[in-house]
Design brief:
By secondary structure, this protein is an alpha/beta fold. 41% of the residues lie in helices and 21% in strands. The strands form 3 sheets. Strands 3, 4, 5, 6, 9, 10 and 11 form a 7-stranded mixed sheet that branches. Strands 1-2 form a two-stranded antiparallel ribbon. A two-stranded parallel sheet has the order 7-8. Strand 3, helix 5 and strand 4 form a beta-alpha-beta unit. The radius of gyration is 24 Å and the shape is globular. 33% of the residues are buried.
Amino acid sequence: MAILKSMNATPPSWDLYRSFLAVLRDGSLSAAARTLGLTQPTLARHVAALEEAVGGALFVRSPQGLEPTDAAQALKTQAEALESAAAALWRTAAGLSRADGVADPVRGPVRVTASEVTGARVLPPILAALRAAHPALVIELVLSNRVDNLLQRDADIAVRMVEPEQQALVVRKIGSVALGLHAHRDYLDRHGRPQTLADLSGHSLIGYDRPSPAIRAMGRRFPGFLDLPFALRTDSDLAQLAAIEAGFGPGVCQVRLARRNPALVRLLPDALELSLGVWIAMHEDLRSTPRCRAVFDGLVAGLSAYVAESGGESNGNAA
């Protein structure tokens, strides 16, 4: 392991360690800058300052990007512990309204993350009802199919289609939504309606580009799903749904959403029947924060109603 020189008397600031961790995880200054919302020169200065403080190089350039040195690996665990401690401090501070620590009524920002389709097509009326009930509430909605880290406060509350594995979370399973293969009537008029799974090979199938955790989960329940010959590959669920609605070809979408469009026809319901679990999670430190609790409970109620209407299996309010 590289031997570090004597460290400076003044400890480096948390900002330097945060930038260090971002570069370590993303593998380049440009990617880390996008993650943190900073400029690339700022990230470079932070890394250089931390290297000067610890007295040794933390990264070396390679064809694959910035590779961590032994010194960087030695700092990683403690830097992550510092990151978790900083996030816990922020969660506690966010739950306090005034210097006396009395919690406010339901007001202020709550950051919610959800998959693209759920966030764009399912959550808006639920969030509208929450805002009507709590006019001082501010919702920050992040649409992403990646699994955000609630422990590091990427979001306050997450609506997930895969079961959360992190500890220290309050998790509620809502149930499952039914998924099915659908196509536009205009497409079927032009190309005919497939009668068997084997017939799908002759159609312009719409599917994923890279398998996500949710896709892999579906593949375990229906192995043939991962081997379908896609004519359009995209990891954007919204793009897939839009392509189905535009008549590009058959694709998988939520049955409840497809019912909203009378031009969409469900195909092979007996041969291709899938479901996707729905969970809501937040950090347990936010349980007593009024605004987070109100949003959590509102999402549970709204999504439970949606699941019950979608043809999926509902858990109601069971934890």
